[in-house]
User: Which sequence fits this backbone?
């Protein structure tokens, strides 16, 4: 049995679920930020939660529009993830600057990141202010995945995705 000792408990859950959460302001400006405070939160109906700090530019967009897209992140998206997670859409059009390919969401009025293997379109049904973060509860209204990953029943083969590891 290994010896145990008290450890730091901030952001204690691991492994993380890195996401790029993309959104579009009411005046049509696209943005995305890195998020790791995120999880599934309902099986039926399918729902996820993403935690956004109120000071983020994306916070006011998601709060105002009530929609977002949670894009799963691969190792090949590492540089974009950290850029989008350390610069603000308040100061620049980050997606255009990086040349990140995007498309319109199929259901929600927000951009989908095409480099992401799985993009989850959500409508906000509520939120919970925890401490530092507001957890936005998103009802999943559409999932767009790389065709090669999806079987005849619509199931995604997540084992074939090389997820970003933090
Ligand atoms: C590894 C990593 C994880 C992050 N996780 C979160 C998070 O869960 N919630 C959040 O609000 N910000 C998180 N951030 C910070 C935002 O992504 C960052 O402040 C971003 O620049 C905000 O962009 P915006 O102002 O354009 O919305 C994270 C950043 C990194 C690098």
Assistant:
């Amino acid at each position: 049995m290994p010896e145990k000792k008290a450890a730091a408990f901030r952001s204690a859950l691991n492994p993380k679920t890195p996401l790029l959460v993309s959104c579009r302001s009411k005046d049509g400006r696209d943005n995305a930020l890195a998020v790791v405070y995120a999880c599934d939160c309902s099986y039926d109906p399918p729902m996820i939660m993403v935690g956004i700090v109120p000071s983020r530019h994306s916070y006011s967009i998601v709060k105002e529009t009530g929609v977002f897209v949670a894009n799963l992140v691969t190792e090949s998206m590492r540089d974009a993830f950290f850029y989008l997670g350390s610069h603000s859409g308040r100061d620049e059009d980050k997606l255009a600057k990086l040349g990140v390919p995007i498309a319109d969401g199929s259901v929600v009025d927000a951009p989908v990141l095409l480099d992401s293997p799985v993009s989850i379109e959500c409508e906000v049904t509520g939120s919970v202010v925890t401490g530092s973060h507001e957890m936005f509860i998103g009802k999943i209204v559409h999932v767009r995945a790389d065709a090669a990953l999806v079987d005849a029943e619509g199931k995604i083969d997540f084992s074939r995705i090389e997820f970003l590891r933090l």
